[in-house]
Amino acid sequence: MPDVTAYAIDSPTGSFERPTVTRRDPGPTEIAFDIAYAGICHSDIHTARSEWGPARYPLVPGHEIAGVVTAVGSDVTRFAVGDRVGVGCFVDSCGDCDDCNAGQEQFCSQSIGTYNSIGRDGKPTVGGYSTAFVVEQDYALRIPDSLSLESAAPLLCAGITTYSPLKRYGAGPGKRVGVVGLGGLGHMAVQISAALGAETIVISRTMSKEADGRKLGASAYYATSDPASLKPLRNSLDLIICTVSDNLDLDPLLALLATDGVFVMVGLPPTPVPVNFGRLINRNRAIAGSNIGGIAETQEMLDFCAEHGLSAWVEVISGQEIDRAYDDVVASKVRYRYVIDAATLDA
Ligand SMILES: [Zn+2]
Ligand SMILES: [Zn+2]
Fold it and tell me: Which end of the chain is more exposed for a tag (fewer CB within 10 A), N or C?
């Protein structure tokens, strides 16, 4: 495959530059595709700025990737040229351990991240802020025809990150689900929870996004900036999906859980958060974490979103705008996901 254009950053404080990177030719079971759009996930920013440990520079982030197949290896059976495909947070795993066999490839000890990992070829993996991609067919997702590629791209991380715990903990009719934080993850959690039939309640920092929250499917909206207003919610939520990745005060949120309620963290605060175990013991409450989802469940999520007419709310940007977009994401200014138009990368 020829060299392809990418946007890379070369230090935690650097800005994005435009090198060319070489993608391998697709092997017998691999597909090549032209990238149409790549979402900007908060994880990209944490990684690019080495906030989760030293990154491998130069770094090309991007694990919310959507595009169209341009070539397939000789033994590819699942995809054909012209198919609409996506790639999420990982591009490989061993395929034969307990986690892989359970469809939880993301936990395989040999799972390979879409960027900032070392691939089987011994080279650093290069993410989706680029014009083309090569991947094993078993790690590519099929994007349903009714989803636009730009609004499908963020589903590959933000969609599955929220879909998986909502399903696991039984969001559905008769359940009350709280979504903490209305950003990239939160706006998907609200849509999916409501589509599953749960009564869905947003708990944000302020009331500024209330209209959007209701449009996304929430039946009520509360602000942590006014703690007294949360009182009516006490002991009432069966499930909380917390998407906040800043440090946060857990205790007032745990107090909102009903008996046997579960608090699931999908954001990753930078430092440990203190827990008042009295809150948990009192009503058999639980705290859990959740990390994306396996390939089969990611496909199930895409099909669910297509069936229910859900997709990410996006702002399409050019490659030249990535640095500004990063600052805007950190400042919670995006509504609700920036997506890079790969056609602008060569401009
Ligand atoms: Zn992500
Ligand atoms: Zn494995």
Answer: C
179: its two tokens = 């979504």
Q: Which residue has the tokens 């993608």?
A: 23
Q: Which pLDDT score, from 0 to 100, does residue 1 have?
A: 62
159-289, CATH topology level: Rossmann fold (3.40.50)
pLDDT at 20: 85
Q: What pLDDT, on a 0 to 100 scale, did the predictor assign at position 270? A: 79
From the candidate CATH numbers 1.20.120.80, 3.90.180.10, 3.20.20.105, 3.40.640.10, the one assigned to the domain spanning 3-157+313-344: 3.90.180.10
Q: How far apart are CA 176 and CA 194, in angstroms?
A: 10
Distance 76 CA to ligand 2 centre (A): 21
Q: Contact, 319 vs 18, CB < 8 A?
A: yes
The C-alpha atoms of residue 317 and residue 212 are separated, in whole angstroms, by: 21
How far, in Å, from the CA of 63 to the mean position of ligand 1? 6
In order along the chain (347 residues), what is the average pLDDT of each group of 10 residues?
89 93 93 98 95 94 98 98 98 97 97 96 94 97 98 98 98 98 97 98 96 98 92 97 91 97 92 93 97 98 98 97 96 95 92
Residue 109 CA, ligand 2 centroid: distance in Å? 6
Nearest bound ligand to the CA of residue 102: 2
Tell me the longest C-alpha to C-alpha distance in the chain. 63
The pTM score is 0.96
- Give me ligand 1 centre to Cα 294, in Å: 14
